[in-house]
TrEMBL record:
Keywords for this protein: Copper, Electron transport, Magnesium, Membrane, Metal-binding, Mitochondrion, Mitochondrion inner membrane, Respiratory chain, Translocase, Transmembrane, Transmembrane helix, Transport
Organism: Enallagma clausum
Function recorded in the entry: Component of the cytochrome c oxidase, the last enzyme in the mitochondrial electron transport chain which drives oxidative phosphorylation. The respiratory chain contains 3 multisubunit complexes succinate dehydrogenase (complex II, CII), ubiquinol-cytochrome c oxidoreductase (cytochrome b-c1 complex, complex III, CIII) and cytochrome c oxidase (complex IV, CIV), that cooperate to transfer electrons derived from NADH and succinate to molecular oxygen, creating an electrochemical gradient over the inner membrane that drives transmembrane transport and the ATP synthase.
Protein family: Belongs to the cytochrome c oxidase subunit 2 family.
GO MF annotation list: copper ion binding; cytochrome-c oxidase activity; oxidoreductase activity
CDD domains reported for this sequence: CcO_II_C
Manner of cofactor binding, per the entry note: Binds a copper A center.
PROSITE patterns according to UniProt: COX2, COX2_CUA, COX2_TM
Record's subunit section: Component of the cytochrome c oxidase (complex IV, CIV), a multisubunit enzyme composed of a catalytic core of 3 subunits and several supernumerary subunits. The complex exists as a monomer or a dimer and forms supercomplexes (SCs) in the inner mitochondrial membrane with ubiquinol-cytochrome c oxidoreductase (cytochrome b-c1 complex, complex III, CIII).
Localisation: Mitochondrion inner membrane
GO biological process terms held by the UniProt record: ATP synthesis coupled electron transport
Name listed for the protein in its UniProt record: Cytochrome c oxidase subunit 2
Organism placement in taxonomy: Eukaryota, Metazoa, Ecdysozoa, Arthropoda, Hexapoda
Amino acid sequence: MATWAQVSFQEATSPMMEQMVYFHDHTMMILLIITVMVGYVMLSLCWNKQVNRNLLDGQKIETAWTVLPVFVLIMIAMPSLRLLYLMDEVSEPSITMKTVGHQWYWSYEYSDFNHIEFDSYMVPESDLEKGMFRLLEVDNRVVLPMQAQVRILVTAADVLHSWTVPSLGVKVDATPGRINQTSFFMNRPGLFYGQCSEICGANHSFMPITIESVKTKT
């Protein structure tokens, strides 16, 4: 989960989030190189007192500043397209869970196991115990196995919501009348927190998500 004064991503808990962090670092390195090169050229031109009165055009430099950006965009686009494909791919899930967004709580269904249903509300600040996190704790956690492919079906009962868990790299829109799906794989046990990421009314910020990842064998 996020910590105080954190400026980077949360610690990755799924292979997909790890790939997103790698892609972010890859893109930021390219942008840093471009920024340094452009800054160096601009500063050198500002401080350079040389003048070439015979320079009317430059076919070579025009070709270079057309070809190089295309090459850079390809370097960014290829891993990005791969990630987009993997994010939408749902293959051989071990368990399927359905979540429905309401104003202002989440309800969950384990359709694979005797149709278990429950609602998940935020724990009020007055009921928090020592060690609990404000605006992130819920009365009923989502319990899922670690190291298993989980498919989640997301929809809404009233207005637009968004089911988001940053450490898993998951963000799915909950749209009334439509079911969206995605999948994730948790590498380790623990508690992973998220929140609704679509403005859905007065209590939008009071719709936390808490996933408890457990070992299948103890």
